[in-house]
Amino acid sequence: MVELLPLSDIAPSAVEDILDAAFGADRFGRTAYRIRQGMDAVPALSFAAVEDGALVGTIQCWPVAHVDAVGAATPLVMVGPVAVRPDLQRTGHGRTLMAHMLEAAETEADSGLMMIGDPEYYGRFFGFTADATGAWDLPGPYEKRRLLARAVNGHGLPTGAGMIGPR
């Protein structure tokens, strides 16, 4: 039986270990890490999956913003990483974490959600699309089709040009 807990209940070293196992120790060079650099995860939207007392997965969300050409900032929440222990990937833990976060986001999110992810998966199962993100930019390399967003908790999404960065 998997128990979903606030990520703040988990030792930070255990979270880092699962992220290293899922994504490799070189993960810090990725564009997603540049966007959220220096930020703390959003406690109300970041969770851990624990099974038989062992950490098996995590999801983290981050306060970011879309800043347009005149400097107007629209808050967003960046979803990810979603990390599952490699020996348990494709067992539904990641999907369970995403569903739990989205349920919490319906009452706790202070803005729309964005992520870098597989549109076929995150669109099909969780309603994320690239419809609003076509003019958005990121501070590093990324595939345009993988920049996804979803309105949540009554918060819309910016649709114009802008850079995504820390809030």
Q: What would you say this structure looks like, in words?
A:
By secondary structure, this protein is α+β, with helices and mostly antiparallel strands. The protein has one domain (2-166): Aminopeptidase (3-Layer(aba) Sandwich), CATH 3.40.630.30. It is built from 4 helices and 8 strands. Strands 1, 2, 3, 4, 5, 6, 7 and 8 form an 8-stranded mixed sheet that branches. The protein is globular and about 50 Å long.
SSE pattern, N- to C-terminal: EHHEEEHEHEEE
Distance between the termini: 36 Å
Number of domains: 1
The third-level CATH topology is Aminopeptidase
CATH superfamily descriptor: Gcn5-related N-acetyltransferase (GNAT)
Point out poorly predicted stretches: none
Radius of gyration, in Å, reads 15 Å
Q: Mean pLDDT score, rounded?
A: 95
Helix proportion: 10-25%
Note the main attributes of this structure.
167 residues; alpha+beta; Aminopeptidase; 8-stranded mixed sheet; 4 helices
Brief synopsis:
This protein has 167 residues and is α+β, with helices and mostly antiparallel strands.
Annotate the secondary structure layout.
Blueprint lengths: L1 E5 L5 H12 L7 H5 L11 E5 L2 E14 L5 E12 L8 H16 L3 E5 L2 H8 L9 E2 L9 E4 L11 E5 L1
Parallel strand pairs: 4-5, 6-8
Antiparallel strand pairs: 1-2, 2-3, 3-4, 3-8, 5-7
